[in-house]
Amino acid sequence: MSRQLINEYRAELDRLRAVSGSRRESVLREAFKDLLKRWGRQQDLQFVPEHDIVTAQKNRIYVDGALLHALRVPFGYWEAKDADDDLDAEMAAKFRKGYPNDNIIFSDDHTAVLVQDGHEQMRVAMDDTDALLPLLTRFFAHERQEIADFNKAVKQFAADLPAVLEALRTIIAEKRKASKDFAKAEAAFLKHAQDAINPAVSADDVQEMLIQHILTEDIFAKVFDNPDFHRQNNIASELYKLEDKLFARGEKSTLLRALAPYYSGIAATAAVIQSHSEKQGFLKGLYENFYKVYNPKAADKLGVVYTPGEIVRFMIRSADWLCEKHFGKNLIDRGVEILDPATGTGTFIVELLESFRGHGDKLRHKYKEELHANEIAILPYYVANLNIEATYQAITGQFAEFENLCLVDTLDNVDALGIHAGHQFDLLGSLTDQNIERIKRQNRRKISVIIGNPPYNANQQNENDNNKNRTYAHIDKRIKDTYIKASTAQKTKVYDMYARFYRWASDRLGDEGVVAFVTNRSFIDSRTFDGFRKCVSKDFTHVHVIDLGGDYKEPGISGASNVFGIGTGVAIAFLIKTRKKEKNTTIRYLAAPNVVAEDKLSWLSHARFEDHAWSVMSPNSEGSWTDNRSPFPNNFLAIANKAVKSTRLSP
Ligand SMILES: C[S@@+](CC[C@H](N)C(=O)[O-])C[C@H]1O[C@@H](n2cnc3c(N)ncnc32)[C@H](O)[C@@H]1O
Description:
Layout: H1 2-20, H2 25-42, E1 46-54, E2 60-68, E3 74-80, H3 87-97, E4 103-107, E5 111-116, E6 119-125, H4 129-141, H5 145-178, H6 180-196, H7 203-223, H8 234-246, H9 251-255, H10 260-272, H11 276-294, H12 296-302, H13 309-327, E7 338-340, H14 347-355, H15 360-370, E8 371-375, H16 378-396, E9 405-407, H17 434-444, E10 449-452, H18 473-484, H19 497-508, E11 513-520, H20 522-525, H21 530-539, E12 542-549, E13 570-577, E14 586-591, H22 597-606, E15 613-617, E16 645-648
Parallel strand pairs: 3-4, 7-8, 7-10, 8-9, 10-11, 12-14
Antiparallel strand pairs: 1-2, 2-3, 4-5, 5-6, 11-13, 12-13, 14-15, 15-16
Bound molecules: S-adenosylmethionine (SAM).
């Protein structure tokens, strides 16, 4: 099988040489990259092009490719060089810069060199199939004991967790009856959660929060090797207090003994990951994995999935470009306040901080005052808190609490909606609680950019799946009065979570600003979103949509082309609201290349917003916003497009 992959690689090389007539590294390396991808796929390794690592010297480097385990732990790396380069000199220079040396292939047109555990293991000619095969076999056979143990522990964890959960729930119920002190503390926490997160939070939800806290506190400490990392956090410290009242001495460690292999697997794996950004990746993977074992339905409802870095960085680059173009300011500039309303593991804030590297005081000010994030669930809230604070510390060398992270239900936090120029803010409120103070502070701010990946039920195929989202009085009424009112569809129901987030964000912006969301793509052409499209055309001055496709309904398209690995197609939208209204809103559409997900992500990592030929769609059209790229009919009607013309984005 592996020899066959090498033969395919040879054939592809010949084809590329014939087609391009070129021997240039940039053309030929694609074939080798494909070989690594395909071989990796056989071992459930994901190939990530331009993989970024922050080195021990705190430099961000981009390795040409990395193969990652499912939990985002790196397996091996690849770096390609030009045939004209001196390969040995280049390798030495890269290692000085902090490139990983545990399992890496360097290649140019002629030679491939395998370095493992700091030593050169093999050096072969690229056109010698007999030699290339053992080199690649050795590369792909490299396995750290820690990772093997960890993979075993993860499987065991899934088997053992239900019994531990059951025991935890029983202990909590008994304690509630036996200890007034505990019951009182739990009730106080519930009150706080209802005030801050949303009024529908129940005693069961608080119990689950406490359980998640108990099960994961060690994980965070271990991954970042800092036992006190989130003791300072206002929510975590309240949960610690509750936990202290719950367990008698030694009770906790006895209870969690069954999960010990999992925790020690995490500690051992975390110890082999050197770089800060890879630790973050590991934590994100771990969190997703944990949640799916712990509560798969909640994972689906909340949209527990992290956003690939390529998408996040593309959205930040583009939002920056759009802000400069329409408002004459960049994201780093004073007065541009940015909010991620569904922050998950904090990826958008982390990447924003990374993009502000080198801006010294401006960065400090942004972090303290002008970057905001909301999260509803305790675990991602913790992960975001850790990731954001660790990133700030890695960039500036100083620890500072990230005070603008709120544990809140964004959609229930409606006090700052519909605010326009001249509005007097209500500054009332004497509650001293820190989280509530944070929410109020955020509500007093004029937000210019709302960016993120709001949730949608990726796996819920229909209403009968019994995993319904709760209702939101204010937002649902706004949807009824706007998207639904403007719709001509008969049974219109636009209460999808992501539509609610669009409604919320459109109302939160005030007079001007940018909304940048990556979501389900159905708003582009589904019949039920016709009212949504009309309202967005009214609320905003410019609309840009990038269709990332990947819907399971698309003929000939498999899950492999979806950037989130889900069945629902994906799109990125940039909605721009300016004070000065144009006569007609311009709607521009761009389809990503119809390729496998890895290649779409690679395309996004190079894509520059301003360089593409966008299709200009007819404004206020009732029809879809596509240029008929997607041949699949939507559920109800196939809608004919009005004339579409192509344009390069004119500033
Ligand atoms: C798709 S994830 C965000 C992923 C994030 N960009 C990342 O890379 O980790 C959506 C997040 O929104 C959170 N969420 C869902 N509903 C929310 C709500 N009403 N208010 C605030 N956060 C919410 C979920 O808990 C989840 O963490």
